[in-house]
Design goal:
The chain is α+β, with helices and mostly antiparallel strands.
């Protein structure tokens, strides 16, 4: 999850294709993004979770980050 209206997804195969899904009351919007953009989004979300003190969510996302980008 990026924010209340957006979420980041990747393909199951090789995790090379990333896209953001944004929801509104009327529609869903899909946007393809690069691996680097996805990494920046995840790292930004990690910083937000670390500051907010949401330790369980932070640990889960940190694991996903390590498995996907390292």
């Amino acid at each position: 999850m990026i924010d209340a209206e957006s979420a980041l997804y990747t393909t199951l195969y090789a995790q090379r294709l990333f896209f953001v899904v944004t929801t509104s009351e009327q529609e869903l919007e899909f946007s393809a993004i690069s691996r680097q953009e996805a990494r920046v989004i995840v790292e930004s979300r990690l910083r937000i979770l670390k500051r907010s003190g949401t330790r369980q969510d932070y640990n889960q996302l940190q694991l996903v980050h390590q498995q996907t980008f390292q």
